[in-house]
C-alpha cells in the first residue's frame, strides 16, 4: 500500500511539531522550509489536522501552530485512517463500486484484506511519541534545514 503525499505530509507535520520543545509555537513557513514542501499544500493539511483536534492554531501576530495533544495520545493508525481518502487496496473492497466479475469467487480479496488489516494493526501499535524517540537527531536535522 502506498500512502498519499497528503498522509505523508500530515505525519511529517506532526513529527516536526512533536520534535519542538513542549508548548513551542511553530508556523507553516518553518515546516515548509524544513521539508521543502509548498506552504499552500501544508496549509490545507494543517487546517485538517486542526479540525481533527491534533493541532492547536493560535491567531495573531505571534500566532502559529502546535500540538493540541501530547505525542503519546496521537495514534499513527488513526491519523492514517483520517487522512487517507481510500484505504481500499482493490475495487472489490468497496461494494458500491465493485465491477469485478470474479469477486464472488475471488480468494485474492481475502488475502489483500488480511494484509490491509495487518498493515493498519501495525500502525495502530504506534503513537507519535514512538516516532519521536530520536528527538535530538530530528531537531538537529530540522535546524540544519533552516540554514539552507
Comma- or semicolon-separated keywords:
148 residues; mainly alpha; Arc Repressor Mutant, subunit A; two-stranded antiparallel sheet; 7 helices; 2 strands; 53% helix; elongated
Would you mind describing this structure in some detail?
- With 148 residues, this protein is mainly α.
- It has a domain at 5-85 and 128-147: Winged helix-like DNA-binding domain superfamily/Winged helix DNA-binding domain (Arc Repressor Mutant, subunit A, Orthogonal Bundle), CATH 1.10.10.10.
- It has seven helices and two strands; from the N terminus they run H-H-H-E-E-H-H-H-H.
- The protein has helices at 5-19, 28-35, 39-51, 76-83, 108-124, 128-131, 135-147, and strands at residues 55-58, 64-67.
- The chain has a two-stranded antiparallel ribbon.
- A hairpin with a 5-residue loop joins strand 1 and strand 2.
- The chain is elongated.
- The mean pLDDT is 91.
The largest sheet, given as strand count, sense and whether it forms a barrel, is: 2 strands, antiparallel
Distance between the termini: 33 Å
Order of helices and strands: HHHEEHHHH
Please tally the helical runs, counting DSSP H or I stretches of 4 or more residues: 7
